[in-house]
Sequence to fold (287 residues):
Amino acid sequence: MLLSTLFFSLMNVCVKAVPHIPAAEVILFRSVVSLIMSFVVLRRAHLSVLGSKRNRWWLVARGATGATALLLFFNTLQHIPLATAATVQYISPIFTAILGIFLVKEHVKPWQWVFFLISFAGIIVINGIETEIDTFYLWLGVLSSLFSGLAYTIIRKLNTKEHPLVIIFYFPLVTIPIVGTYTMFNWVRPEGWDWALLLLVGVLTQLGQYYMTMSYQAEEISKVANLNYIGIIYALVLGYFLFGEEFSLLTYSGMALVLLGVFLNMRFKSRQLKRQAMQGAQASEAV
Fold:
């Protein structure tokens, strides 16, 4: 997940470097690159790109929820301040943990909710929240986070039943027809380095999606989801070195809260796993 959030942060840098390209067009480029890369690797591994029939519905649902979340998020970015949109988007790990209770039957301990709130409080301190915003688009951002949470929960639902690239393949498969239709009537021709940046958006997205999928397949949602908050740390560091964005005391305080929430959650889960292992060993000895 640490690698995943790094690649997604680098992708955001590339997206920021092409502000003159419509959001839907950027999404189209990243989807096409992801589709091609997934298809080539899966075929070379002699794996079915469409996965098994018994998981087909969940795979389509993963693609649809991910595409919906992305479109809603970009739409939100265009209508409300960036800081507010980013803050709202970080609600998705909380939705992921909640949905995991119902779809995956994973329980979240009361203390873990406290750790989630600590990390989210750090995001609010770092980004701040504008008071004068369009409430319609604010709730659109919340809806985007809900769909993101649903997409992550479906990945966990699939567990290791499908290859990570099969799960990733369904995202562009569903997204391309939607954004492709819009882009046909709103095309902006990329110039010069735009092509390289758009290609990088696709490659970095593919790497981010791959490691994120592996993470959700291998670990419990409540443990993995909280690591999403590390992304804001990457964003702040990249912003400082690449765009000269400076930090305030509140920013450092927010970073500390983010890291504290992540550390406490991981520590809590590690202790739980050790306790369960000891109980299992004691039960085996008793038998």
Q: What stands out?
A: DSSP finds twelve helices and no strands in the chain.
